[in-house]
Structure formats: structure tokens, C-alpha cells
Amino acid sequence: MLGVKGLLAPRWPLQQDVLSAVKLVSSALEALDSSRAPVTKRHRKLLLKTTAAGGEEELLQQRLAETQASRRRLLTDVCAKYQPGVDERHVSGRQVSRVYVEDQSRLLYCEVPKAGCSNWKRVLMVLGGSATSTQDIPHDAAHYGNHLWRLESYEHAGIAERLRSYTKVLFVREPFERLVSAFRDKFESPNSYYHPVFGRPIISRYRANATQAALRTGAGVTFREFVQYLLDVRRPVGMDIHWEPVTQLCSPCLLRYNFIGKFESLREEADFLLRSVGAPRNLTFPDFKDRNPRAERTSSRITQRYFSQLNATERQKAFDFYYMDYLMFDYPKPFNDLH
């Protein structure tokens, strides 16, 4: 095993003060005033408009940088309270098994399913040179094409060096919404893996008077049956990464991520990160949905509808199951009766 000391997340560099935008306006106008060519009213308006846009961009960059600093502080505080000393423990292969490596941009990305991971893998492939455009990468190529390296595949010294010097990236999603998204994707659409492997044992354990057809195919699992399986300490089939809590999937207290993004503002925050690590200007985060593209994206409204099928006790137990995700990533309680 590899012993890695806890790494305090470095402060994300704050952007240039917004007053620089005002200075830029003044200096540019002075340069125009001193030039021999006459400055028209139209030229002044165009200059002011361009500089104002630059000022707005700087404000946005500063806001995003401050958000990152706040999220890292919260992560540090929660870890210190609930998992003291965890950063002194040994790093195991499992704890970095979901972390992907992009050496050219010096990025480590922990895969969180149902939080934009397919598109993040496409971005990593473009950054690494195995693809030229995110638009040309099919879903299966992103996930099963073996174009990306996992951190666990490196030798101990390589793992330690990358953990020490690379930008460690994590994107999270509201836990109940992520759970509903996973359920809809795996159980409400035809699926040759999840129906037989998970559906059959779930129906067998939690459905009274199940039909032979349901027991044979595993199709038609209800959301309530799925949650019963999730909360059962003696599950008839194991955990899966699509609904495993992020705190277990990505070990945030151990790995101390430098960048903690949220699915709810995915495009904006992902593009901010890409600019921060020097990615090509023409590479922006894709926004297409290639899994069940005709289905409406899982939203807070849809999530509320699914959880309304549960009673208050079941909702509370589900909240307790994801409690550390809610706490560590600053998501509010999704129902008023939760405690």
C-alpha cells in the first residue's frame, strides 16, 4: 500500500480585481485620444461595450473562484469533524479506482455517474488527444473504449506524484436527484444488464406475489422496491456506482479535491475549470444527452414526484443514507419533514 500524507487543497488563484476593467477603459480611451486618427462616437461606444463585457467576465471568474474556495473550506471542516485523521491513512486501490488521469492537462477526475461523467470522459479524451471533438464520441466509446487511464493503474510513485501535483476534480449532484436519475436510466428503459442482475433479485425479495414473467426478466422494478433494496443492510445484490454515495465513491476526505463542481451549474463551472488549466479555447463542455435522449432530464420536480411514492420513514432513511453527501457538498434538505 502507498502512504500518502493529507494534502491541503491549494488556494485557487483569485482573478484580477474588477477595478482593472475601469483602468482598461481609461487607458484605452487615453490612447485613442492621443492618436492622430479621430475617435468617433461609434468607436467609443464599441470600445466601452467590449471592455464592459470583459469586466463582466472578470466578475464571473472571481465569483466562481470564490465559490470554489468556499466549497473547499466546507469540505475541510466537515472532514475534520466527521473523519478526523483520515488524510493520514493509506491510499488503497479502491479509493482511487474511479479516478481518471489526463496527463497533458495534469487533471485527476473522479467519475460520479449521473453527474455528467459521460461528457467529462469525452472532454478528457479530447484533452489527451485520442479524439478531436466531443461531438464525435459515442457513449460506448467514452465508457468502454479504453482511451482513458485510471489512477490505480500507475505504480505507487506515479500515484503519489499525481495526487500531490495534479488538479483533482470532483463534480457532484443533488443526491436524491442523482438517485432518481439512476433509477429512471437503469430500470425504466430496456437494459440487458440491470434488469437481470439487479431487477430479478429486487423483485424476488420485495414484491409479494410477483409474476413469473417479472421474476424471469427483472423488468418493471418500482421506485419503492428500488429504495427498499438500497436501504436493506442485507441486500440481495450488491452496491452499484450509479447510486453509491459520492463520499464513498470518491473518498473526498482522503483525496482533498482542488475543484468541486456541481451538476446544477455544470456547463459554467466545467468551462471555468477548463480555462483555468489552459485547455484550448475552442474546447467547451458538451451539453448533449445521449442516454435516452427523448426522456426529460431528471429535475427537482421529477425527483419530488418519485419520492412522493415513499412514506415519511422511507424518505428519512434515504436521506440518512446520503446524509454525508448532503452535508459535505452543502445541499439543502429536499423535504421539510426530514431531520
UniProtKB/TrEMBL annotation:
<keyword id="KW-0325">Glycoprotein</keyword>
<dbReference type="GO" id="GO:0030166">
    <property type="term" value="P:proteoglycan biosynthetic process"/>
</dbReference>
<keyword id="KW-0119">Carbohydrate metabolism</keyword>
<dbReference type="Pfam" id="PF03567">
    <property type="entry name" value="Sulfotransfer_2"/>
</dbReference>
<dbReference type="InterPro" id="IPR005331">
    <property type="entry name" value="Sulfotransferase"/>
</dbReference>
<keyword id="KW-0333">Golgi apparatus</keyword>
<protein>
    <recommendedName>
        <fullName>Carbohydrate sulfotransferase</fullName>
        <ecNumber>2.8.2.-</ecNumber>
    </recommendedName>
</protein>
<dbReference type="GO" id="GO:0000139">
    <property type="term" value="C:Golgi membrane"/>
</dbReference>
<keyword id="KW-0472">Membrane</keyword>
<dbReference type="GO" id="GO:0016051">
    <property type="term" value="P:carbohydrate biosynthetic process"/>
</dbReference>
<keyword id="KW-1133">Transmembrane helix</keyword>
<dbReference type="InterPro" id="IPR018011">
    <property type="entry name" value="Carb_sulfotrans_8-10"/>
</dbReference>
<dbReference type="GO" id="GO:0008146">
    <property type="term" value="F:sulfotransferase activity"/>
</dbReference>
<keyword id="KW-0812">Transmembrane</keyword>
<comment type="similarity">
    <text>Belongs to the sulfotransferase 2 family.</text>
</comment>
<keyword id="KW-0735">Signal-anchor</keyword>
<keyword id="KW-0808">Transferase</keyword>
